[in-house]
Amino acid sequence: MSDRRIAIFGLGYVGLPLIRACLAAGHDVIGFDVSRDVVTRLLSGQSHVDDVSDAEVKSWQERGFQATSRTRDLVDVDVYVICVPTPLAADSSPDLGAVIAATTDIAGHLDLARRPLVILESTTYPGTTEEIVKPILETSGGVAGVDFALAFSPERIDPGNKVWSFENTPKVVGGLTESCADQAAAFYSTITSEVVRTKGLKEAEMAKLLENTYRHVNIALVNELAKISDLLGIDIWDVIAAAETKPYGFQAFRPGPGVGGHCIPIDPNYLGHRVRTELGQSVRFIELAQEINASMPEYVVDRVEHLLGSHEVPLAGAEVLLLGVTYKPNIADLRESPSYDVVRGLRARGASVVFHDSYVDSWLVDGTEVAKATDLRAAAAHASCTVLLQSHDEYLQADALVDSTLLLDTQGRLRSARGLNGTRWTTM
Predict the structure, then answer these.
(1) Number of neighbours of residue 348 by Cβ within 10 angstroms
(2) 5-199: CATH class
(3) DSSP per residue over 34-93, as a string?
(4) Buried (b) or exposed (e) across 61-94, using 16+ Cβ within 10 A?
(5) Which end of the chain is more exposed for a tag (fewer CB within 10 A), N or C?
(6) pLDDT at position 400, please?
(7) Which residues pair with 152 in a beta bridge?
(8) Can you give the pLDDT at residue 283?
(9) How many CA atoms lie within 13 A of 17 on its CB side?
(10) Nearest Cα to 326, choosing from 370, 299, 357, 347?
(11) Location of each CATH 3.40.50.720 domain in the chain
(12) 282: Cα within 13 Å, side-chain hemisphere
C-alpha cells in the first residue's frame, strides 16, 4: 500500500496525527482543509495542534506532504479519509455540514478506475455513512461496494496523551460490505498496531458514541455525588481514593467544573438525536448526564460565592482568578471548555474575572476579552479568590499558590499542597 496516495480531509486534531502516521508508513499524503489559514501555516511549517510540533510539520514536506484548499489538487487519490468537525447546531442537533461538503468534494473527484476507498472518521450518529455519505458519493456514477469501497472508522485521538497515540491505539473499522471492511482494515494495518473489525458501519459508528457516552454518564454520576457529599459533610475525594483500591468492578472518575472538548459534551447528543428522530424515544441516562454536567460551572460559581461569603467578602465586586481555562491539562485546546460558563456565571453576579494559563495567549468570552495575569504568584496574592479549573502541571507546585487569599480547587489535585487545610483553601 505504500505506493498509494492518501487524501485527508480536515487538518485538525484528528487529521494531523493521521498524516504523521501515514507518512511514517511511507504513504504519499495530501491534506485538504477549507481554511486557507490552516493550509498556509502548514505549508510554512507551523503546527496548530498540541500533539504535532512545528519541526514535525517541516519534516513532512521533505517526505512529499502537500496541503491544499483547492479541490482540483485532489488527483490520483486511492484512499480518502474524512475527519472534519461534527459540531452541534444552535438547537443542539447534529451539524453534518462539514461532512456533507467534504463528501461532495470527494464525489466530484473520485477516479473510479482506481477503485478508491473512502473512510469517514468524523464522529456521528449510526446510519450517517450509509444514509448520507453513500448517496452523495454515488453521484459520481459509481456504486458503493462495487466501484469504490466505503467504511467508517471512529477517531480515537486524545490530545495531550503521552502514552496512547494514533499508532498504538486499536482502530475500529466497519465496512459497507466485507470487501469494503477488508480494504479499510488493510489500509489501517499499515499505520496502526491493531485493527478491530465490527459487523458493519452502524456498529462502528455506535462504538464511538458508546465510548464517550460511558465517560459522560460516569462523570455526571461523580459530579452529582460531589454535590451531595458536600452537603453531607463527606470528603468525596477520600471516598474515591478508597473505592478505587478495589481491584475489580470499579473504575474511578473524578468531579470537575464540567466537561469539555469536542467529544464528551457533543457526541451523546448525536445518539440522542438519532433515537428521538428514528424511534421517537428519549435516552434518559444521556439527558440526565447532560443536565448534571452542564450544571457544574454554575455550581463552581456557587462554591466561590460561599467561600467568599464565609470570609465576609461579597462576590459582587470581588476579583476572581481562574487558573487553567483549557478543557484538559497541559494543552492549548479551549473547545467546549466549561471555563466559558464559569466566567459567564461570575460576571452575572458582579465579579471581575482574571485568568492565568500559560497555554492561552488571549481569551474572549462572549466577545469580551478576559484580563490575563502574567505573574501567577502576584495575581494569586491580589485576587479575592483563586479557582483551579484545570490542573496544568505548573499549578501542582504549591509554592506558586501559597499566597492565595482563598482558593477553590475544582480538580482535587492540591490536597497535599501546603496550606490546603482549614478554611483558606478548599476542594469542590
Answers:
(1) 10
(2) alpha beta
(3) S-HHHHHHHHTT---STTS-HHHHHHHHHTT-EEES-GGG--S-SEEEE-----B-TTSS
(4) eeeebbbbbeeeebeebbbbbbbbbbebeeeeeb
(5) N
(6) 67
(7) 120, 174
(8) 87
(9) 21
(10) 357
(11) 5-199, 216-427
(12) 7
Catalytic residue among 22, 83, 180, 263: 263
227 alpha-carbon distance from chain centroid:
25
Asked if 152 and 144 count as a contact pair (C-beta separation under 8 A), the reply is no
Closest CA to 57 of 43, 69, 70, 38: 43
Structure-block grid coordinates of residue 20: 504523521
Res 300: pLDDT: 98
Residue identified by cell 459567564 is: 344
Reply yes or no on whether 263 is catalytic: yes
- Rounded to whole angstroms, the Cα distance separating 383 from 394 reads 19
Q: Which long-range contacts (CB under 8 A, 24 or more apart) does 178-185 make?
A: 179/145, 179/149, 180/117, 180/144, 180/145, 180/149, 180/150, 180/151, 181/151, 183/117, 183/149, 183/151, 184/117, 184/119, 184/149, 184/151, 184/153
* Chain position carrying cell 502537500: 66
Farthest CA pair distance, the chain: 76
Dihedral pair phi/psi, residue 419, rounded to 5°:
90, -5
Residue 88 neighbours by CB under 8 Å, 6+ apart = 94, 95, 266, 269
Q: Is 358 exposed, middle or buried (0-12, 13-18, 19+ CB in 10 A)?
A: middle
Residue 379: CB atoms within 10 A of its CB come to 21
- Give, to the nearest 10 degrees, the angle between helix 54-62 and helix 15-24: 50
What are 276-326's pLDDT values in tens digits?
888 888 888 999 999 999 999 999 999 999 999 999 999 999 999 999 999
3-class secondary-structure state, position 326: coil
Alpha helical stretches, state H, 177-200: 178-189
Give me the sheet containing 28-32, strands edge to edge: 66-68, 28-32, 5-9, 79-82, 117-120, 149-152, 171-175, 195-197
CA 275 to chain centre: 23
Which residue ranges in the chain fall short of pLDDT 70? 1-3, 398-400, 416-423
> Which pLDDT does position 276 carry in this prediction?
85
Residues 269 and 212 sit within 8 Å (Cβ to Cβ): no
pTM for this one?
Answer: 0.90
- In CATH, which of 3.50.50.60, 3.40.50.720, 3.30.110.170, 3.40.50.2300 is domain 216-427? 3.40.50.720
